Every structure is written in structure tokens, then in C-alpha cells.
Amino acid sequence: MRPKHQLESAEFDLEGFYSNVRKYTEKLCEPLEVEDYIPQPIEDVSPPKWNIAHTTWFFEEMILKSFADDYTEFDAEFGFLFNSYYNTIGERTQRNQRGDLSRPTVKDVFAYRKYVDAEMRALFEQELPQKVKDLIVLGLNHEQQHQELFLTDLKYTLSVNPTYPVYRENFALVEKGEIDSGNFIEVEGGIKEIGFDGDGFHFDNELGRHKAYLEDFEICESLVSNADFVEFINDGGYRDHRLWHSEGWDWVNSYQISSPLYWTKKESNWNIFTLGGLRKLIPENPACHISFYEASAFAEWKGMRLPTEFEWEAASDRFDWGLRWEWTGSAYLPYPNFSTAKGAVGEYNGKFMINQMVLRGSSVATSPGHSRKSYRNFFHPQLRWQFTGLRLAK
Amino acid sequence: MRPKHQLESAEFDLEGFYSNVRKYTEKLCEPLEVEDYIPQPIEDVSPPKWNIAHTTWFFEEMILKSFADDYTEFDAEFGFLFNSYYNTIGERTQRNQRGDLSRPTVKDVFAYRKYVDAEMRALFEQELPQKVKDLIVLGLNHEQQHQELFLTDLKYTLSVNPTYPVYRENFALVEKGEIDSGNFIEVEGGIKEIGFDGDGFHFDNELGRHKAYLEDFEICESLVSNADFVEFINDGGYRDHRLWHSEGWDWVNSYQISSPLYWTKKESNWNIFTLGGLRKLIPENPACHISFYEASAFAEWKGMRLPTEFEWEAASDRFDWGLRWEWTGSAYLPYPNFSTAKGAVGEYNGKFMINQMVLRGSSVATSPGHSRKSYRNFFHPQLRWQFTGLRLAK
Amino acid sequence: MRPKHQLESAEFDLEGFYSNVRKYTEKLCEPLEVEDYIPQPIEDVSPPKWNIAHTTWFFEEMILKSFADDYTEFDAEFGFLFNSYYNTIGERTQRNQRGDLSRPTVKDVFAYRKYVDAEMRALFEQELPQKVKDLIVLGLNHEQQHQELFLTDLKYTLSVNPTYPVYRENFALVEKGEIDSGNFIEVEGGIKEIGFDGDGFHFDNELGRHKAYLEDFEICESLVSNADFVEFINDGGYRDHRLWHSEGWDWVNSYQISSPLYWTKKESNWNIFTLGGLRKLIPENPACHISFYEASAFAEWKGMRLPTEFEWEAASDRFDWGLRWEWTGSAYLPYPNFSTAKGAVGEYNGKFMINQMVLRGSSVATSPGHSRKSYRNFFHPQLRWQFTGLRLAK
Amino acid sequence: MRPKHQLESAEFDLEGFYSNVRKYTEKLCEPLEVEDYIPQPIEDVSPPKWNIAHTTWFFEEMILKSFADDYTEFDAEFGFLFNSYYNTIGERTQRNQRGDLSRPTVKDVFAYRKYVDAEMRALFEQELPQKVKDLIVLGLNHEQQHQELFLTDLKYTLSVNPTYPVYRENFALVEKGEIDSGNFIEVEGGIKEIGFDGDGFHFDNELGRHKAYLEDFEICESLVSNADFVEFINDGGYRDHRLWHSEGWDWVNSYQISSPLYWTKKESNWNIFTLGGLRKLIPENPACHISFYEASAFAEWKGMRLPTEFEWEAASDRFDWGLRWEWTGSAYLPYPNFSTAKGAVGEYNGKFMINQMVLRGSSVATSPGHSRKSYRNFFHPQLRWQFTGLRLAK
Predict the structure, then answer these.
(1) Averaged pLDDT for residues A313-325
(2) What are the phi and psi torsion angles at D266 (to 5°)?
């Protein structure tokens, strides 16, 4: 949000960055049929049409309307249709009604993207103040976040279809393996510096940089694997209340949870639904699509715990990460000296700082270049449709 | 269900009837974009894709699979996807999840229709037993019912879109007028014969033909108009508990109902959403999209009542009907000697005979040839997305 | 509501009637502990404290406030607390919050009864206009209805207590037997006179007296017994969708219904909870505590049906009734020429005429003298906490 | 949970402590009518009967059954009836059905208390191992927690009664005032020791004692007052989305929150419901019965924030506390090295460590001797029926 040195340097190619991010979204759309752009089976999951229109809306609403000369908006109604949660800007489509809208058509939405891209290119011709450049960079990072949501939301929507449609036959997501060493790294405690410290882009929730005192701890070099999770299931982990938070236990029972999301058993073999269709579970892969409750119960079963986000960040240079978002034992709260930006942009992060848990790392669905060790992702403890796994600590 | 003389006569052109009905469905689809086939904003409203696949499924499931030689089904999964409510046939898509399915595509569904139509044409080459012919006629009447639902469901879906999309610019539904004479016809009581008595198609719920004793009554020549309903609104009809059933009053307050469905006030003028887009309310048109609760409260306000379905049928030759389904004061119950057919077809009507009210007549959205005076339509008392109005009696 | 000859005769002892009914309520209270007066486990079930205060409130609100000279109300807040559903009179305790009120105490409520009784006795000293006498008779019939509710509500409340408390050890309800002849009576059809025709009290919903045409029918001399229902259960009746209304089938599955209310199986024996505690099921007793859905599914299983309320009334002199309310196949609707009284009393019946089914007869819990063949009871089709059974027709 | 030095010393009078705590509960009951022991208007609020039986059950279940020779339980069904949430011990009354139970009577429950007290006194005659003594101390602290709940739950139940019953006319809760200096104390940052460090009783969630690094901060000497909150209301605080968490804003709108709980406006004056009945709001009193959302929005409005629980503990010797529980900005999470006890006692705290916020201090309803600076109370962010207020930090 407050980009520094790197983004202010002469060499930084903002227009190139813009062009790459916007093209990447369109590449994600290639395998889709028109019909795939529409459904929203649950409130958390947005339709692709909404995702690609909303990211475009961000540039129109936050940048073009304010900083482009004589800007004519593409369609006056799009502001209402594609606002997500910015109260400052006004009324919007109810979140659970995004899937009710057949119009504008997919074609219209792509025309909207083209129109805004052309206007943005025109804007790049001018000398832009740093503040506008910063907003553009924010808009592109916002679009990268929605690129990941595009994939996770689409995966959910395809998964509820009894015909198990394939997004991309050889989509990489299913094949990523991992050497499961299981070694624990010993980390010495003391005062650690936490929060963003580079010279590139970062979100406001990664600030302010501050000190935290950590005890000595150990953290596992590798993620928990599918094989580990099968063992947990076979040992009755989903039926032993002692392993679960009270609300987690209610969740398990209310929804009759007995495995991670997208797992189905055919005869005695586990299958998982992937963006490449229904596949056999690969035991060596890191476990995925688990809730915080499941992550925490698994750790309890192992006699261990989840790392805090501070431990994770402090140790993150000593292990590989990036395949799965990793649940931490930390609630999503402001850092000391956190402050909210003025205006609509200030609604980006702070107002969600309640009842959510922090995830660190990134996932196979995270867009290239959109990860760093200070990145704070966050979700409610029962949610599982992101590519979420866990790493043990003790 | 048990067609008689007319349908058994040599002159009755079943293949022509089949062809006409199936083509009419496709004609209804013409103005649609691919996206329009998908959304299901509420459980009662099915997506067009589902409607056109389900009517096709009826012919495949009930006829081709049983009576065509060596029939190969189009796609084994369609049976699950497009079954509506036939428990006898097996599992099916949950009714509220019809809008979650992007696949099969619209193109696939039209290919399904073509495939089944070709197989049906092949079947017509053969000499068919009367029982099969009867089932085909049932299937075509079933499709005609879904043609009306196609329009009413689509209207609802388009109505939740803030851009008020137009289905057909000059669609007739908005323009149908009526001379509002307000004359009451006096009908002499006595024993009347009720139920189907012709020699054509009819549903099982129109049988058995039986006697009912009616007192003398009066029934209005014309339907209640929009102007009448505006008067009711202006007189505080929606805020006077004395006019409402107890459950109707709860409904008014829970959903803050203050006008018929699709009415919106801009400044001091009433507009209504139609399949031709948002239009000015035409006072002379018959009131439409009202629930049984509203119909009943209106009648109470007038110091009158709704006719029973028996009164309606007995007097129906003496007034014009067909623009709006007309709520009656009769609950949907079996006639004396009603009996349910064996097998899946037996689930057509009988199992819905609770908590619903009978509507008589037909509407502007009813398919040509699909109405008769003994026809019994039925809906829950709070529903309004059909073209429903009322006629007063006393 | 519009009492005639009998009540107007000089011999009719209104004060004696008042005294008897009021005392009977107090007799029902005798076995109760103070604590029993408070809980309301579900919305349909009112606490005893509310029942005995509300019936008293009726006399204060409808009679004393209007017709007693210089009447001083017992407590200004009781009007709000103990109004049931009379919108005309004003705001009231939410129906589902009757069990939240610990005050006024039970002692206070009995003081309230004493106070009103004394004032009523004073009123009887005067010469009362027939209109007031009629209202008093209505109030006493109203109290008799609440006497039955007192027992059925209390039974429900005690039943949710895992200790199965006993109301009266040798309470008659469990012991009523019946000769289960199973004979069917043949009744000749034709025009029948339906509705109240005596010279005593009756409710407005029993009017107007009118003609109805009935086909020939047969009706069973005896009620369906517990043994019959055990057979239905053992034959899989609760698991065969073909027997049920669609909404009934949803109800069975949502609530996992597999027997009448209050039945529990210990090892292989059926027990039932009664006002005399938990008892062994007596096979010869008439089945009880079944919903309309269950009654209808049972009849379907037998290849028969429920009688209509008109058939029941027409044949009611030819069989014994009075142990169980009997579900009929008739929806609760106004009779021809039904009209609603002006003012609060007009809210007594008419506004409930939707989505309910008629029951005829009376039950073991009905107060002495409070039954007649034209009496129309009514409940929603899923409700079972009344003493409800069924009689077959064909 | 693991009491140390003080409780192990020879001088510590365990029997006296037992006697005092148990008597205090009975003193709290004195003003109650039998009826007051029963209702449970919302799930969070337990009936007094349940509170006083459950605390007794703890001694029977955890101590007498295991450690008293030949102990005969008072009533075999009480184990089921009065278990709260201990899955380890078995089935129990559903939490939302505690108010449905009229039996056992209040008299029975007091007999149960007497019986258990006598058995406990007999146990005190023996030489008890330290482990049993520790469990008894835990049981007494548990009862003290329920003493506070007794008052807060009772307050809620009386508040829903339109007659505003009085618990104790001159009950202190309404009258506690406070000098509202508004001074901010400057606290120097650095490494602080956090967690229990004394030699008396403490709960497991106060351990392990550990280091935390704090930045410099300021914390207010006094609590936010009613006058402050009136100002917040008058400035539109409840209608300005920018001040609220996203979920807080949903909560405000769903429940139409516009003031703290128990506040009602009569004409232009604020009244509050207290255990002494309805009273005028005293501006100088500390604000009370606010949710975390309200506390946080108020702080945002002031341009400040809530203290973390670590800041609070580190500074707690420098200000007065004890009138209101104080919301902190800390989520309820385990301290480093937190571990759960084996068996049912292990369900005391750990399983609630999700989606709740920490409160520090104590309240006017907290039992004498039941507070210390390391005490961690916790509730969901929307709850307000405890005596909760806030202190500002910056």
C-alpha cells in the first residue's frame, strides 16, 4: 500500500507489470465455456465473470475516475454490479447474489476489460504522480489475489457438478510432489523483527515492522502429507472430541466432516477432485483443503502444535514453502502501529481483523511474483476451499 | 393422463403435436444469451437450461428407455441431472442446486434435444400401443407446463438484475388490456357436475367427474385491475391486519410486502417489471403477480370473497378468462374417486395435495391449446412469480 | 358465538356454568409444582401459567372492562402479558417468549383469577343483556379449549424431561381402550345438511348451515389402533415415499420421524409417554399423537383414505367418537355464508383458515360438555402434540 | 489448576473456603421466587436452577465419586441433567434446553446441595492428598465463576420481562461511580513477563509464564464512561461503517443495534435496566454491557485502540480496575507452553481458544477474592450480557 524504493525507481516498468498481470487473468480464462462464468454455488465463491469484472472495476473506480482526464465510464451500472465490499463507494450487489446475474454477458465484460485497458494505456502516456502509481500497483496486486480466487472458486464450482468437469487436463496442481523429510529445525528464541522490510510492494497489514519476543522452538522442514492425513483419519481423528476445539467439534458434527474437502472414497481408495478432474490421491503430496480446525486437531493428535505467524516468519528462510497456504496458530489482528488508509482503500484489510486466522506462505494457485515471507493471508477457521495445508511446530 | 376418444381417433396427428410443442420451446429460447440459461436465484425458479433438458429427459426416461428398441441413452449422467422430483426413478440434483451447474453446456443440451427428437421420430414410424401414445401426450402437456414456467422463471431471474434486461421488447405480456365492466353475473345454485368431461387430454387431478352442491352466488365478469389494486394500497390495505389471514399477516411483515411483485415506485408513479423490461403500470390491465394472501385480503377489503373452484368452473362459460391465473378459495385436494397411477407417473399430482390453493383459468404465458375450464393449477399461498390475479365473488 | 334458544332460556344457569368451568381449570392445576407452570419448550406449547392467566384475561378484557361499572383492572400490565393473538387489542408478548417470564408469580396469577371471579360474580347480580351473556358463554367455551391445551401442552413439556415426570399416576388417558371391530358402515350419498343446527352454543366456524352433495361412501366403525400402527411401522411405512405427500416426506426425513410422537422403543417393546408417566403401549388403544401426514400415509398404505369432514359429520351418529381427534381429508376453509364478527372477537377463527386441516370429534382431554358433531377443530398437518388419531373411509 | 505454595501451606483453611463459597451462592438466591429459577430466554443464559445444580454436580462428579468411600450418588439422573460441556463424561442436556426442565424442583436441587455439602464435610474429616485438595479448590473457583454468571444470566432473564422485576432494590451494581480523570499513563516498552506468577490458585490458561516484547504505549487511567458513550451515539457512531469491523457492521445492522444492551430511551432520557430495576443512566458510571465490536468502534472513533492483554497486564498495577470486564485487542489463544490437563478437567479452557476475545480485570458481579491481574476471561465478540466495558490505549 505504501510502496517504497523499488517501485519508485526509474527502472520499474509499471506498464509492463500492468500488461502482464492483465494478460495472465485472460490466460486463466482460456479453457472456460461461457456457462462456467456464471454459477456461484456458495456465498464464499464468486463467479469467474464477477472476478474478472471486479478487478477491472477497481481500476475504473479507484484510478480512471479520479485521475484520467475526461474519463467516460464504460457503463454506469457496473459500479453497482461489481463493487465487492467497499461501503465508502456505495451500494452493491449482495455478495450471495453474484451468481444470479446473467447480464452483462461475458462478452460485455471482456469489452469492459478492453475499454479500461485502453484507457489505462492512455494514462501511462502521462507523467503520473507516485500516489497514482502506487494505487495502480495496489490494483495489480488486488488482481493477482483474484487470480488465485479465480482458480479456487472455479475448483469449488466444478466440484459440485456430478460430472466432475476438467479445467485443464494436465493442470499442475495435482502433481506437485514433495520430499517428506519430516526433519525439525531448531530455532533459537529472542527478539525478532517482524513485518515487511523490503523495498517493494506490500499490504498495509504487513506493517508496522516491529519486535516480537519468541521462545526457542522447532518447526518442521516439510508440510504434513496426504499419507499423514490418511493415518489421522484411520486412527479415528475425526471422531475423537479431545483433539478438537469446541466449535471445531460442532462443525465436524454439523457437516459430518470426515476427510479434507474434495476427498471421496471409491471402494477402499481415496480420490480427490482437482482442476484436472477426479484423480487418485498421491500420498506424498502435501495435504490440502483443510480447515484451521482440522489443522489444529491434526497437530494435537501428533502431540504438537501449529507455529505462530511470528515463528513462521522468523524461520521461513530455513525451509521451502509455496505449495500450500499454511495455517498458523495466530489470530488475524493488527500489528502494533497498524493504521488504516483514508477512503475506500482503507477498507482493504483492517475491517476483517476479527474471527479469522492467519495463513502464511503461498500456494500452487498463487500468481507468479505475488508472494513474500511477510505476506499475511487470513480466513475463517472453518473454510477449506483455498489450497490450505499445515506445517507442524513444537 | 387417461386420454379418451379424441386422442384415440385416427385423425389425431400425434407426431404433428409432438413437433409443434417441441418447436415452440425452441422458439421461446431464441432471444436468450448463453448466460441466461444458468442462474437460479431462488429455489422455486429453475434455470432455462434445466427446463429444456428436463422436458427432454421425460421423453427419454418415460418413453424411449421403455418402448424404443435398443435405445442408447444420450448420456448416462443426464438421468441424475435432470430428474425433477420422481423418487421412484431415483436420486437427483437437489432442487436448489440446479443453478450451480455450468455443464453440460447449453450446446450439449440442445444436442440432447435433437438426439431425443430423432429417436422419437423413429418411434413414430412404428405402430404404437395406445398406452405409449397416452404417455407421449402426457409428456407434451408436461412440456407445455414447463413452457409457462420457462417464462415465469426467466422473468423472475431477469427481475433481480439491477439492469432490468429485456427478453422481448414488444412482448405481449405487458400490453394485454381488459374492459373492466365490473358487472356481477348471478348464478343459480344446485347440483353441478364438476371435473373433466371432454374427450381430450386432461390430468388425473381433474378426475373423477362428480357432483357438487352450490348455493346461489354472484361472480364478477372481469378481473380485478391494477387500478383497483392501487386503490387498495392507497387505502392502507397492506397495513390493516383485519384484512389478512394470520399467516398472511406474518408474511406481509416478515418480507415487508407493500405491493404486488415486480411493482416499484419511482417518484409517485408505479412501474412494473415485465418481460419487455421496466414499464409504466397500465391501470386498466388486470392485476398480476399477487399471492393468495393478497388476493384474499383484497376481497375482504371489498367486502366480498374469492369464488370456490367449483363456482368458477360452473360459471366459467359466462365470462372471459385466460389472461391471469385466478386464485380460488379452494384448497388443492383430491376429487372424490381420485386415484393415483402406478409408477413414476403417479407422482405427478397427488403428492402435492396439501397446503396449496387451487388456481383456475390460464395466463398470457400459458402455451396455446393448453387450457380448459376443468384445469386445476395449484401453488402455495405465498407464491407470486406466476401470472396470478383474482376475480371477485359474493 | 351467536347462541340461540337454549342459552336464552330462563332455565339456563349461566352463573353455575361459569363456576363449574372455572373450578375445573383449578382442579387441573392441583398436581402441579410451581416450577411446572413456567417452561415453554416449543412455540406451540404454552406454559400452564400463561394458559390460566390468558383465560382470565379474556373475561377481564372482553367483559369486565366493557360491561362492569367502575371496573378497576387487576394489573395494567397483564393486558400485554396475557393477550394471545388479538391484534385489535394491541401489542402482546411474543408467542415464543411466554416461557421467558418468571413474573408475575403463580401466586399472583391465582390472585388474578380470584379477583376476576369476584368481579364476575358481582356482575351476575345484575340483569345482563343477552349480548353480554353470549360473550360470557364464549369466554367459558374458550376456557374449555384452553383446558384441553393445558393438558396437551403440559404433556409435551413433561415429555422432554429425561426423568419422565408423572402428572397423575392413574390418569385415565393411558387406559382408554376400544373394541376394534373394524367394520365399515355403508352410507348412502346425496345432499346432506352440514353445520351447526342445535339451540346451544357453537363457534362461528360451524356456520352457516348449508347443503353438501356426497357420493356413497363407507366409514369405519372404529379408530385405527396402536396395533395397526405397529404393523404400518413394521411394514416400512415410514420409509416408503409412495405413501406420503411430498411435504410429508420432507417432514419425515428432516425430523427422522419413525413412529407417532411419544413412542420410544426399549429393547423390542414399544413404550409411550403419558400423563401418567412412561407406560407400555397397549395394542388395543386407538393410535394417538399422529400428524395429518402420518394419518394420510397410513390410509394410503391401507388402500383407503380419510373421510372428508362432511362425510364424518353426516355419518357421525352411527359410530362412537370422542377418544381421539380425527384427522379428516378436508382443509380448514369457511363454510358458505361464513362471516366474521366485528372487533376482537372476529379474530377467533376466520384468520386461521389457511394451511390447516380439519379434525372432527373430540379427545379424552376435551372438557366435559365441550363437544358436538358439528365442532371443527384444526391444526397444521405436521402437528402431533394433540390427542390425534384417525378413522378410515373408502 | 495447579495450585502451589499458598494452597499447600498448613494455614490454608480449605474447609472454610468451601463453606464460604457455597454459602455465598445461597445468599445470591435469597431474593428469588421459585419461578425465577426456571426460564432460559437465550442459549447463553442458564437458569439459576441449573447454575446452582451444576456447581454442585462438579463436586459430586469430579470429587465424591472418585475420592469418597462408598459414595452413593444423590440421583443417578442428575449427571445427565447438570453436566455442562464435558464430552469426556458423556451425554448431557442440550445447552438450549436447560430452561425446558421444570423437574427436579428447586427444593430438590437445594436438597442435592445439602446432601453433597454433608458428604464433602465428611470428606474433609480425612487426610486428603494434595491432588484432591487442588480439585476442590478448582471446584470452588468454578462455583465463583458461576456466581457471576448467576447474576448476569438472571439480569438478562429479568430484562426481557416487560414488568422489569427488581432483584435487590438497592443492589450495588447501579451505583458504582468512578472518577473519570481521563489521564493517560505512559508505559515504557521492552520485554515483560506475562502470566501467573503468584503462589495461589490460577487457571491453566494463565500459564505458562512467558516473555512478551511490548512497544512503548499509553493507557487510560479510567474506563470509558456512560457520558462518553452517549457522545458516541449522538455523533452517529452506530451509523458510520468506517468505525466498525465488517462482521461488527453486519451485527449492528442485523440486530439494529443503536446503544449498549439494557439501554432504553424514554422521551429524551436514557434509562438502563439493572438488577435493581429500571433506573436513570448515571453519566459518570463506566459504560457497561457493550460488545467487543462496540468497544472497538468506540476506540476507532476516538482515534485510539484497545490495549492488548499483555499491555493491560503489564500496566495493571498503575490503575484501578474491577468494576467492568475490559475488552482487550487480543484474541484468546494459548500462551507458549500451554498444555491441557488429562481427562475431563482438560476441557476447562483450551477447547474454547478460537473466535473469542480476551477480557481482563473483573466486574462488580465477580465474587470476592476471585480476581487477579493475570486472569483471562474470554467471550465471543458480539456478546454483551456480561458486565463489559473498555479502557482506551494508544
Answers:
(1) 96
(2) -115, 120
pLDDT value of residue C177: 62
Q: Are residues A232 and A367 in the same domain?
A: yes
pLDDT tens digits, residue range B112-123?
999 999 999 999
Q: Is A321 on the interface with D (CB under 8 A)?
A: no
Q: Is C353 on the interface with B (CB under 8 A)?
A: yes
Burial A240-261 (b: 16+ CB within 10 A, else e): eebbbbbbbbebbeeeebebbb
Mutate to test the interface with C, among B44, B242, B330 (most CBs of C within 10 A): B242
pLDDT over threshold 70, residue C138: yes
Q: How many residues does chain D have?
A: 394
Q: What string of DSSP letters covers C268-318?
A: TEEEEEETTEEEE--TTSBP-S--HHHHHHHHHHTT-BPPPHHHHHHHGGG
pLDDT tens digits, one per residue of C70-124: 999 999 999 888 887 777 777 777 888 999 999 999 999 999 999 999 999 999 9
How much is the pTM?
A: 0.94
Look at residue A103 and tell me if it is in a domain.
yes
- Determine D/C contact with 3+ CB pairs under 8 A as the test: yes
- Nearest CB among D329, D336, D355 relative to A333 is that of D329
Q: Which residues in chain C have their CB less than 8 angstroms from residue D154's CB?
A: none
Domain that holds residue B113: 14-159
* Same structural domain, A127 and A267: no
What pLDDT does residue B336 have?
92
Interchain CB contact of C45 with D (< 8 Å) = no
Residues B189 and B329 occupy one common structural domain: yes
Q: Residue A324: which residues within 8 A CB-CB, separation 6 or more?
A: A223, A286, A287, A288, A361, A363, A364, A387, A388, A389, A390
Are C137 and C35 in contact by the 8 Å Cβ rule? The answer is no
**Phi and psi angles of residue A44, each rounded to the nearest 5 degrees, phi first:** -65, -20
- pLDDT for A175 beyond 70: no
From the list D35, D80, D106, the residue facing C103 with the nearest CB is D35
Grid coordinates given for D126: 480425612
- Residue D169 is predicted with a pLDDT of 86
Query: Is D132 part of the contact surface with chain A (CB cutoff 8 Å)?
Result: no
Number of domains in chain C: 2
State the chains in contact with C (3 or more Cβ–Cβ pairs under 8 Å): B, D
Residue whose C-alpha is closest to residue D390's, from D339, D301, D324: D324
Q: Which positions ≥6 away from B26 have C-beta within 8 Å?
A: B113
Q: Is residue C212 part of a domain?
A: yes
Please list every residue in chain D whose beta carbon sits closer than 8 Å to the beta carbon of residue A337. Answer: 215
- Whether A211 has its CB under 8 Å from any CB of chain D: the answer is yes
Whether pLDDT at A167 is above 90: yes
Q: And the C-alpha cell for A290?
A: 483443510
**Is the domain of B216 the same as that of B147?**
no
How many residue contacts between C and D have a Cβ separation below 8 Å? 93
Q: Residue A170: what pLDDT? A: 77
* A350 within domain boundaries: yes
Chain D residues whose CB is inside 8 A of the C161 CB are 100-103
* ipTM, interface predicted TM-score of the complex: 0.94
**pLDDT tens digits for D161-172?**
999 999 998 775
| Lowest-confidence segment of A203-207, B169-173, C279-283, D35-39 by average pLDDT | B169-173
- Among C102, C105, C160, the residue with its CB nearest the CB of D157 is C102
- Residues 236 to 255 of D: which have CB under 8 A from any A CB? 241-242, 244-249
Q: What is the pLDDT of residue B347?
A: 73
The answer to whether the CB of C123 falls within 8 A of the CB of C63 is: yes
Domain membership of residue A374 (yes or no) is: yes
Quick one: C237 and C372 in the same domain?
yes
CA distance C38 to chain D (A): 7
- Give the DSSP letter of residue C179: -
How close does chain C come to D38, measured CA to CA in Å? 7
Measure A100 CA to nearest chain B CA, in Å.
5
Q: Which pLDDT does position A3 carry in this prediction? A: 39
Assign residue A295 the CATH number of its domain.
3.90.1580.10
Q: Is the pLDDT of residue C179 over 60?
A: no
| CATH number of A54's domain | 1.20.120
**Residues C245, B85: C-beta atoms closer than 8 Å:** no
Residues C154, C188, single domain; the answer is no
